[in-house]
DNA sequence: TACATAATTGAAAGCGCTTTGGGTGCCATT
DNA sequence: AATGGCACCCAAAGCGCTTTCAATTATGTA
């Protein structure tokens, strides 16, 4: 069933039926009713491809999903997507996900943009001096970046959390508790948030004249396993750190196991603060020793970004171009006063 | 830049350029080279919407993502998607993800199909007597189901793992180790895999004349937190179970914490076998007590389903319509002989 | 040399929708 | 009676591609 058939069925022109369906005012209410009724009966749905070709609008936002045989999927990706989806479903938008080799992301993004399949783009996992940024700017298509790109000028639309502030505050708390030996379990070294978090730690330490030694920093994928390994390494250092900053609750999971296996007590021998993206599968408050965290819901960010993206496409009012969300520092039992020097 | 402009630029007709681009044989190799060269220089990309309108093919597979403000995202979803993507990227396919309220899935699926946006559909999280099945059958569009629908006739294309066999084998192992008091931590009660896994346990027990008591079964979301709660409940039963079957390594995480908190030793006081979807963030072999698991890589299933779907759309050879994958039972340290009766 | 055949290329007709630029009545105003 | 304004509706022109059918040129055969 297409428009033509439907209009013949009704004895109307395609024009009128189209207008009736799209809520144009110049059509008689009675006719509109008739059309709507016929749609219900026939189950007619406009062909999206045709609609898109005619209007140029697709009703969809595009994103590229890095993927390759060895490439690890990411819990955070799913949770963020859920947030995007939650908002998208309210506006009858959908996503076009283009899987791409991580090395090919810039090209994939361009293909996606030029394909005419999407109205707007979304990118995440920003890196320092991210090469996608100049490309996006040249594109004349709305986009929003999740995160920022360290080192690049801040003239693009983004939503980010205050990673530096979060880890600065967390470090300060540990300093106030008397800790002097710190370690940082961070995400991969090129990622923007990892850079900023590290800077937060460093500048808080600097205020007390302390430095973060290179062997007290790990940059890894944020998995349980890497958390375990990184913590084991830290615990074997001659000057064992007593205060750990950790970029993810998933990674903290492994880290805590390492602490337990070493016969140490979390919150007493070792204090740990992790960043919590509020993943539904992992609640820091119900860890056996509840976790002190810096918190910001990834999902909420997804909702907000979808709002801005869809709003821009629909030209529904102006949106702030740049948002920086504060995180909450929530103190639980995994942090405590520094142990007496052994 | 569109086809018309490109063809004018080259002094050729749209027809020829189109044919050159799409690999038709009746175009001179020299001209084809010229066209390809021009494409490189101008960065021309065909408009997908137009292509789709003309051919009816979209180069995309559709799936609906259940989502709502309260709805939990799922690690497994991301991992599976990674598998789909890994294959899709090889064929220049993409996904159209339609977010939908979980109550509205059937309708969302139909909308997606009729929209003309996709060539094939994929559905997962199957339930017993799943209402999406009759709908899909009526649709005359290729689809593959991940999982099966308990109670419905097996006349649809699916890929599933042998959930019943997996849990049957796991239960038998525990029986052989002398266990007699069992508990099952399962997924939500309406889900197909949960039904089959339960049946596997029940039938293995039945062979020894044992039954699975109602208070030894939990049906919950498969999160860390729910795992903790469920295990706590089991441990307080008057006849405490010594053998636990668990539907997910994520859930096992919480369960193990509950065991530790109760001062019990995993693999001695309590034996536990979990199903392992091979999530990169959680490796059962590196748990503090390595986990005995039934294993089947979710990601591999994603790859395979994408193969079948894309293959069908491209009419590339016949694919088996129904596949049932065996799982591996991998014995590690979380299982041991039943403790002496207290 | 004449004619069939193959190799290339083009013109034009769609694909299903939106939207521009008219109509056609009908009523109130002069 | 003539005019203008409204309310409704329609024909047809695109949107950018593919594909059918026809035309043109090159190649081979008798």
Short description:
By secondary structure, chain A is an alpha/beta fold. Helix content of chain A is 41%, strand content 16%.
Walk me through this protein's architecture.
The structure is a homodimer of 342-residue chains. With 342 residues, chain A is α/β, with parallel strands linked by helices. The first copy, chain A, folds into 3 domains: 3-46, Orthogonal Bundle (434 Repressor (Amino-terminal Domain)), CATH 1.10.260; 60-161 and 299-325, Rossmann fold (3-Layer(aba) Sandwich), CATH 3.40.50.2300; 163-295, 3-Layer(aba) Sandwich (Rossmann fold), CATH 3.40.50.2300. Helices cover 41% and strands 16% of the residues of chain A. Chain A has 12 helices and 12 strands. Chain A has helices at residues 3-10, 14-21, 29-42, 48-55, 75-88, 105-114, 132-137, 163-176, 192-207, 224-235, 249-261, 298-313, and strands at residues 60-66, 94-100, 120-123, 143-146, 158-161, 182-186, 217-219, 243-246, 271-276, 292-295, 322-325, 328-330. The first copy, chain A, has a 6-stranded parallel β-sheet, sandwiched between helices. Chain A has a 6-stranded mixed β-sheet with strand order 7-6-8-9-10-12, sandwiched between helices. In chain A, helix 5 crosses helix 12. Chain A is elongated. Chains A and B meet through helix 4, helix 5, strand 2, helix 6 and helix 10 of A and helix 4, helix 5, strand 2, helix 6 and helix 10 of B. The structure holds a DNA duplex (30 and 30 nucleotides).
